[in-house]
Automatic annotation (TrEMBL):
<dbReference type="GO" id="GO:0004558">
    <property type="term" value="F:alpha-1,4-glucosidase activity"/>
</dbReference>
<dbReference type="GO" id="GO:0006491">
    <property type="term" value="P:N-glycan processing"/>
</dbReference>
<keyword id="KW-0326">Glycosidase</keyword>
<dbReference type="Pfam" id="PF13802">
    <property type="entry name" value="Gal_mutarotas_2"/>
</dbReference>
<feature type="domain" description="Glycoside hydrolase family 31 N-terminal">
    <location>
        <begin position="95"/>
        <end position="322"/>
    </location>
</feature>
<comment type="similarity">
    <text>Belongs to the glycosyl hydrolase 31 family.</text>
</comment>
<feature type="compositionally biased region" description="Basic and acidic residues">
    <location>
        <begin position="202"/>
        <end position="216"/>
    </location>
</feature>
<feature type="domain" description="Glycosyl hydrolase family 31 C-terminal">
    <location>
        <begin position="714"/>
        <end position="803"/>
    </location>
</feature>
<dbReference type="Pfam" id="PF21365">
    <property type="entry name" value="Glyco_hydro_31_3rd"/>
</dbReference>
<feature type="signal peptide">
    <location>
        <begin position="1"/>
        <end position="28"/>
    </location>
</feature>
<dbReference type="GO" id="GO:0005975">
    <property type="term" value="P:carbohydrate metabolic process"/>
</dbReference>
<feature type="domain" description="Glycoside hydrolase family 31 TIM barrel">
    <location>
        <begin position="376"/>
        <end position="706"/>
    </location>
</feature>
<dbReference type="GO" id="GO:0030246">
    <property type="term" value="F:carbohydrate binding"/>
</dbReference>
<dbReference type="GO" id="GO:0017177">
    <property type="term" value="C:glucosidase II complex"/>
</dbReference>
<dbReference type="InterPro" id="IPR017853">
    <property type="entry name" value="GH"/>
</dbReference>
<dbReference type="InterPro" id="IPR025887">
    <property type="entry name" value="Glyco_hydro_31_N_dom"/>
</dbReference>
<dbReference type="InterPro" id="IPR011013">
    <property type="entry name" value="Gal_mutarotase_sf_dom"/>
</dbReference>
Length: 951
């Protein structure tokens, strides 16, 4: 790679940065660079408390008690005080219990002394004295619709509240404090059942000891050559959360683990470490691990037959989560359900828990989206194929790649530039030698409606000749060191760097101004942005990130906001791009982020970071992406081909076949990896990869429709089996096959070497599944063997669905805008149905009604296929409908017809007051394949109501 050479650095500094960069590109993950629970003081303390409580069992007395005299309920909000008995003193912990109309309940516990500033900071710190209480400001967009008719009753030391939809109830036991969440009398979630609750209250540091009870991590904590000064002393919060009768829990990304989360207290096949949430630059991460990665969403879903619930732990500090599963009778021969017991531990902040009652996945995801927002409906180009590597070395290189894609008839929409395009790692600049005329390059891309994504990271080069860096310092927009008086300096790609503090509203406004075309000279309207390294990554920092006692805007410590940091940065970039063309010309931005938190789905897509070019990482991607969808951030992908290393041609080909089903579909490679653009693979691999990418483009209408549903209802784009079939326990742990949106398409990409056949689990007894390509039929529930030679993708269509697609190959998705549609109808005895959503894919005009939303229904009773309007206010769509009036359906394919269709030559088509005939061709199925008919050019408009009668 290019040697880093920070201007103005000493020779020693140059050597240090060069060394650090070499470490970054030449070594796999170093476990010694990252803490274990035993090395993280608060995790160690809380795990020890859990061990003590478990060993003591019923004989242990929890120190937490609800003061019954303080309980009050008004307008759906219960307030009270929890007392923590520590001998002669009771620590007051204010409790707020909020009940929402949709059945969601929120439990917030604070600490009176910290709230009122009755504590003393050490080391002359300027940090806030309160517990961090602003995570909700960043993560939440809802949660204020209180159930004002909630009913309270207290008797025998238990306060009960009935609220929300019929049957929802909370029972709060006063002593020891615990909470049960019930529906129809059955407990689904229990807080503090095992007495692991722990609020580390403020206390002065003992003068005669370096620690407390022999543990020196209470007051200072050293790791990786850095000492955390901990000016507020110990302040962790912890709670055990039990899901009675729930076998499986999912979510809490990001981890390279299975979809159904594993136990973390040892045992065969389990982990010995808790799942960790602490956004970090984990270089060349390993798979099957609870180790922290780049992003954190503290949302967990629990599933049992016929029921699902969720928990959202709103805390942005370092967090660890233990999971164990218990049976009432471990020797029982019956298939008794386990109870899943979890233990959540965060270093600082409030104890702030949302309990989401479900009762099914669609309700749960809607409840979570109402709290944190739904994924933004993306710009249409961004769900097509992206081509990237570190790095395209010049504008001529970019133009050459662009030409080669056209030469080999491979569609793509976006080409990417990594850090080398800049002038000496100074963002908002271009290398004057290799990118001397970026506008010409961008205009070349624009001719075929293609885009450029350029990387811009939060570390700003410390260089006296860099105007943006000087502005950052002079305006005070950077993160400060632990004194709160000096801007923090660390090392990243530019060498000596400062970090923008996007918690500061003035800093965000400044950041937004930098994207003005007059400031970011050379960029154009088809330029979008990639925010990498925003955990933040600091090469010489503890755990490759920023010291926890650094100070952010309004004197919050970095420890409090660490997992939010990346989101504040990509939010600022999103807002900058949204209004870049000026007032009244807003466009949907595309921003890719590596670091994220709950709520990031509103403004960014994510990818799984620095994966490796091997089969295990290909296999790991789908469990990770399914977890992202469950946690409300479905616009997710993994580097196709693997970032590090050089994939074999078979691996590269299989990765493209899998990547065609990533919501975010991008090929990417490390600077030391060989060039691997799809057209370089040689035959037959080029043709197979081309087919996979074209398949993605053909199905873009279904992808966009799935994104639309996610944008208002929260349903994942890729749907696990337990979401589709919540009563089928045999599918609860499946994470290597999935359904695409509402299409009924079941996909199991090949992720192992040398495979020519695979096993697909079909979950239904009385439903036929058809092979997507040749209509081979698979009947009945169970494991089915599906052919999978290198040139094919195991892909089945569930009968009863209608799939809209576009079959004309184009160079980019923008050139497909007015292309005709094909409708594939997978027949079932009860008929078939499907949905299509279309808008301009670029502006926000859809919010004013400028969209097309159609239903397609096949009724077997009268053998008629109908198109109907789903738009609630069709008059608002008039202008857009006029623009799309010539877009038609060019073909209808009915799969699964009987022999009585053999003699059918024409069908009756009706649109408005006109009726005409269309030609029909019958194709007989052989060797286990379904027969099908093709209606050629029915000449119906996609924007109108019509019928095709097959009787």
């Amino acid at each position: 790679m290019r040697q880093l050479n920070p201007l103005g650095s000493s020779s020693a500094g140059v050597l240090l940065v060069s060394f650090l960069s070499l470490v970054q590109i030449s070594k796999a993950v170093k476990h010694g660079d990252f803490k274990t629970c035993a090395q993280s003081g608060f995790c160690k303390r809380n795990r020890a408390l859990a061990d003590q409580a478990t060993a003591a069992g019923a004989s242990r007395t929890s120190p937490y008690e609800l003061d019954a005299n303080t309980v009050a309920l008004k307008d759906g909000v219960l307030t009270a005080t929890i007392l923590k008995n520590i001998g002669e003193e009771n620590v007051e912990l204010p409790l707020v219990f909020s009940f929402l109309d949709n059945g969601v309940a929120r439990v917030t516990i604070d600490e009176a002394k910290r709230m009122t500033g009755q504590i003393e900071l050490r080391h002359g710190s300027t940090a806030k004295k309160e517990r961090y209480n602003e995570a909700a400001k960043w993560a939440l967009v809802g949660g204020e619709n209180f159930h004002k008719d909630a009913i309270i009753k207290t008797e025998d030391g238990v306060t009960s509240v009935a609220y929300g939809p019929a049957g929802y109830q909370v029972k709060i036991t006063h002593k020891p404090f615990s909470v049960k969440f019930l529906k129809d009398g059955e407990a689904h979630v229990v807080l503090n059942e095992r007495s692991f609750m722990n609020i580390e209250h403020w206390r002065p540091k003992p003068e005669d000891s370096d620690g407390n009870k022999g543990d020196d991590t209470w007051w200072e904590e050293a790791f990786g050559g850095n000492t955390d000064s901990k000016p507020r002393g110990p302040e962790s919060v912890a709670m055990d959360i039990t899901f009675p009768g729930y076998d499986h829990v999912y979510g809490i990304p990001e981890h390279a683990s299975s979809l159904s989360l594993k136990e973390t207290r040892g045992g065969e096949g389990n982990y010995n470490e808790p799942y960790r949430l602490y956004n970090a630059d984990v270089f060349e991460y390993e798979i099957d691990s609870p180790m922290t990665l780049y992003g954190s969403i503290p949302f967990m879903q629990a599933q049992k037959k016929g029921s699902t619930v969720g928990v959202f732990w709103l805390n942005a500090a370092e967090t660890w989560i233990d999971i164990v599963k218990q049976k009432t009778n471990v020797n029982a021969l019956s298939p008794e359900r386990a109870t899943t017991q979890t233990h959540w531990m965060s270093e600082s902040g409030l104890l702030d828990i949302f309990v989401l009652p479900g009762p099914n996945s669609s309700w749960l995801y809607k409840q979570y989206g109402d709290l944190t927002g739904f994924t933004a409906l993306p710009a249409a180009f961004s769900i097509a194929y992206h081509q990237c590597r570190w790095n395209y070395v010049s504008q001529d290189d970019v133009k050459d790649v662009d030409r080669k894609f056209d030469k080999f008839d491979i569609p793509y929409d976006v080409i990417w530039l990594d850090i080398e395009y800049t002038d000496s790692k100074k963002y908002f600049t271009w290398d004057p030698l290799t990118f001397k005329d970026p506008e010409t390059m961008l205009k070349t891309l624009d001719k075929r409606e293609r885009k450029l994504v350029a990387i811009i990271d939060p570390h700003i080069k410390n260089d006296k000749n860099y105007a943006i860096g000087n502005e950052l310092v002079n305006k005070g927009f950077g993160v400060m060191d632990k004194t709160g008086k000096k801007i923090y300096e660390g090392w990243c790609w530019p060498g000596s760097s400062h970090w923008i503090d996007c918690f500061n509203p003035a800093a965000r406004a400044w950041w937004k101004s930098l994207f003005d075309f007059k400031k970011f000279v050379g960029s154009m309207p088809n330029t979008w942005i990639w925010n990498d390294m925003n955990e933040p990554s600091v090469f010489n920092g503890p755990e490759t990130t920023m010291p926890k006692d650094n100070i952010h805007y309004d004197n919050w410590e970095h420890r409090d906001v660490h997992n939010l940091n990346g989101m504040t940065f990509h939010n600022a970039t999103y807002e900058a791009l949204k209004t870049r063309l000026g007032p009244g010309k807003e466009r949907r931005p595309f921003v890719l982020t590596r670091s994220y938190f709950a709520g990031s789905q509103r403004t960014a897509a994510m990818w799984t970071g620095d994966n490796q070019a091997d089969w295990s990482h290909l296999a790991q991607a789908f469990p990770m992406l399914l977890a992202q969808g469950i946690a409300g951030m479905p616009f997710a992908g993994a580097d196709v081909g693997g970032f590090f290393g050089n994939p074999s041609k078979e691996l590269l080909t299989r990765w493209y076949q899998a990547g065609a089903f990533y919501p975010f579909f991008r090929g990417h490679a490390h600077i030391d990896a060989k060039r691997r653009e799809p057209y370089l693979a040689g035959e037959p691999y080029v043709s197979i990869i081309r087919d996979a990418i074209r398949l993605r483009y053909s199905l873009l209408p279904t992808w966009y429709t799935a994104f639309h549903r996610a944008s208002w209802e929260g349903m994942p784009i890729l749907r696990p089996h337990f979401v589709m079939f919540p009563d089928d326990e045999a599918g609860f742990a499946i994470d290597d096959q999935f359904y695409l949106g509402d299409t009924g398409i079941l996909v199991k990409p090949i992720v192992s070497e040398g495979v020519t056949e695979t096993s697909v689990y079909v979950p239904e007894e009385n439903m036929v599944y058809y092979d997507y390509f040749d209509y081979t039929m698979y009947n009945g529930k169970g494991i089915r063997s599906v052919p999978a030679p290198l040139g094919s993708i195991p892909m089945l269509m569930r009968s009863g669905h209608i799939i809209p697609r576009k079959d004309r190959p184009r160079r980019s998705s923008g050139l497909m805008r007015y292309d005709p549609y094909t409708l594939v109808v997978a027949l079932a005895p009860g008929g078939a149905g499907g949905v299509l959503y279309v808008d301009d894919g670029e502006t926000y005009d859809n919010k004013d009604g400028a969209f097309i939303h159609r239903s397609f229904i096949y009724n077997p009773g009268d053998k008629t296929l109908r198109s109907g309007n789903l738009h609630p206010e069709p008059a608002k769509a008039a202008k857009y409908v006029k623009e799309m009036r010539d877009v038609r359906v060019e073909r209808v394919i009915l799969v699964g017809v009987t022999d009585e269709w053999k003699d059918k030559k024409t069908v009756e088509v009706k649109q408005g007051s006109k009726t005409w005939d269309a030609e029909v061709k019958f194709v007989e199925g052989k060797e286990g394949r379904a027969s099908h008919v093709i209606v050629r050019n029915p000449r119906v408009a996609i924007v109108k109501d019509w019928t095709i009668n097959f009787a």
